[in-house]
Design goal:
621 residues, 9% strand, 6-stranded mixed sheet, alpha/beta, elongated
């Protein structure tokens, strides 16, 4: 079932009626379809030939009734029957060709669109992921892509086939008897007028249904991961969750019923119109046969061809609805592809070669980017955000720091002072608003993203692990690492013995986000992953916060070994971690309030010493 970013409540039915497609949508669709133009040409040619072959049976029947039977010509009957069988066999073969072409184009489009969307989402800034529910992202990559490809395959084939069938059938009917053909066309307004009204209404219902579906998908995505399920069990209410889910599911159900009823009534009415038209041809045509104006075979052939006129007319009205709703999916795909990329690699960016690890924050001012620069509003609305939720204020104010290659600098300060924001600027998770961040004298914005991030290793307070094996999680830092290198990194992080004791060892699946492991085990795995990456610059964001004193001592020894010859930025609250740093920068209100060694800052009796004495800053060991 296709999904949409449009989040609507049950009372908003019809609020999307009349919404039109963006200009240029069809032209952009062709850009994606262009690589398959040869296959599409074969597809259309097969449709055209099949449409011509479908005219054979009525004319065969006409000849049998008007000529072969009256003349008792058995040979002619056999020849005509053989022609009809040959046409049927050829038509069957062409149907297989059409299916092969449409599946090749359709699956190819799905592959191309998903590849483009996946690459685009990967390039989006971290701010995009902080604003956008995972369910909204995955729905664009899955259901919306499938809905979009149907516009090019099934809908395109249906439109072209129906146009060709309608044109060739009308031409054949005119050749047989133009007056009865005109009678067939009189009912055309009865197809066109309701098609426009019902098509618009079905398009609005389709959008609404997609919105409810996306909201339902988002709730499932958030509640059915380990952390979400745990939160619901500990703080939530199963009844409340069920009611919330049922409200969204009810929206999907109600709009589905509306769409089904509208569609069925519409096509039953069209079928009725077609039946009336066919009856009129038989009635008036029979009188013309009695009057000797046409033959019996001609009447039978015209009646058979008339059915072929009304069927494509019905299909074309349906195709308009399908095309418009499919194009809604294309619009959502394009909305993601057109989203702004706040963090981009500038033209002519250079690689950071053999980094020494010198870091400089030069008069840095930073504020989080507004939604228009980092998010897609309709996907935010799906989460109920509906606007810019970040404060439009500076988080860092003229912050300046210089860290020499190989130096360890500890960043301390109260929560919200700007420590994590500062270190996020180094690998360009965000870009500075004013000032510059440099590595070895190079502005990070002048470096290629791959070489910049390859030089930096991070261990966060809550390290993330994929739902894969321990070995795969470690090798994520270095795909070329052999078993010996992986084991060496694990030993250095004091986690090898724990892994070796598991039944499957390094092949053990850690579970989503590593929830099968303890907090300390996850952090030691993250440290092993960092050691395997072997970066020039290390960022430790509360890397020992989940460790007890015994584990911390082992890890500190491993980290001290890993930090030898490397630059390290450490955010910590443990006094033992802070003391081991070469210098300490006390961050307050987005500024460097004071900087120096532990001894120097204590002697100065400033903010650092005051917070330490009050016990508000660090955990004494």
């Amino acid at each position: 079932m296709r999904m949409s970013p449009y989040h609507m409540m049950p009372g908003d039915k019809g609020s999307l009626d009349g919404v039109k497609l963006a200009n240029g949508t069809f032209k952009r669709v062709w850009v994606f379809a262009r690589p398959y133009r040869r296959t599409i040409s074969i597809f259309l040619a097969a449709i055209f030939v099949a449409a011509l072959l479908a005219l054979v049976p009525p004319f065969v029947v006409r000849e049998i009734i008007d000529t072969a039977i009256p003349d008792n010509d058995r040979y002619a009957i056999k020849v005509l029957a053989t022609i009809a069988v040959f046409a049927a066999l050829t038509d069957a073969g062409l149907a297989i060709v059409q299916r092969w072409c449409s599946s090749r184009v359709g699956e190819g489009l799905i592959y191309d669109l998903r590849g483009a969307l996946f690459a685009k989402v990967q390039r989006m800034p971290i701010a995009f992921f902080t604003r956008t529910p995972t369910g909204s992202i995955t729905s664009r990559l899955s259901s919306d892509v499938v809905g979009a490809q149907s516009a090019v395959t099934s809908t395109l084939g249906s439109v072209v086939s129906n146009v060709i069938v309608l044109t060739t059938t009308l031409a054949a009917m005119i050749a047989l008897e133009w007056r009865l053909t005109l009678l067939t066309l009189i009912v055309l307004p009865l197809f066109i007028v309701p098609a426009r009204r019902v098509g618009t209404r079905l398009q609005g219902i389709s959008r609404e249904q997609m919105g409810h579906n996306a909201a339902m998908n988002t709730q499932m995505t958030e509640r059915f991961n380990v952390s979400g399920a745990t939160l619901v069990k500990l703080f939530g209410s199963g009844q409340r969750e069920r009611e919330s889910f049922e409200t969204r599911a009810r929206g999907v159900r109600d709009t589905g019923i509306q769409a089904a009823i509208y569609g069925r009534v519409f096509f039953v009415a069209l079928g009725l119109v077609g039946a009336i038209g066919t009856a009129a041809i038989y009635g008036i045509g029979a009188l013309m046969v009695v009057d000797g104006e046409i033959s019996t075979g001609t009447l039978v052939a015209l009646a058979a061809l008339a059915t072929r006129v009304y069927q494509p007319l019905t299909g074309l009205t349906n195709a308009r609805v399908d095309l418009m709703t499919s194009m809604v999916s294309f619009e959502r795909v394009f909305e993601v592809l057109d989203a702004p990329e706040a963090i981009q690699e500038k033209p002519g960016a250079i690689d950071l070669v053999a980094p020494r690890g010198g870091v400089e924050f030069d008069n840095v001012t930073f504020r989080y980017p507004p939604a228009v620069e980092s998010a897609i509003p309709t996907m935010e609305q799906n989460a109920g955000l509906g606007g810019d939720t970040d404060p439009d204020v500076d988080v860092l104010h003229g912050l300046s720091l210089t860290i020499a290659p190989g130096e360890t600098l500890a960043l301390v300060g109260a929560s919200g002072a700007g420590k994590s924001t500062t270190i996020s600027l180094l690998p360009r998770l965000y870009d500075v608003t004013v000032g510059a961040v440099r590595i070895d004298g190079h502005d990070v914005r002048d470096l290629t993203l791959d070489s910049l991030r390859a030089s930096i290793g991070v261990v966060s307070q809550d390290p993330h692990l994929f739902h894969e094996s321990i070995g795969d999680n470690l090798r994520y830092a270095d795909q070329s690492a052999n078993d010996d290198q992986v084991i060496a990194a694990a030993k250095a992080a004091r986690i090898h013995d724990t892994i070796a004791a598991l039944p499957d060892g390094y092949d053990t699946i850690v579970g989503e986000r590593g929830y099968r492991l303890s907090g300390g085990e996850k952090q030691r795995l993250a440290i092993a992953r960092l050691l395997l990456k072997d970066p020039a610059i290390i960022i430790l964001d509360e890397a020992t916060s989940h460790l007890d004193n015994d584990n911390e001592a082992h890890i500190q020894a491993a980290l001290e070994h890993a930090m030898e010859g490397r630059t390290a930025l450490v955010i910590a609250h443990r006094l033992s971690t802070i003391r081991s740093a070469d210098r300490i920068a006390f961050i307050e209100d987005g500024r460097v309030a004071e900087i120096g060694t532990h001894t120097e800052l204590l002697a100065a009796g400033g903010r650092y010493a005051h917070q330490l004495q009050a016990g508000d800053l660090v955990i004494p060991n």
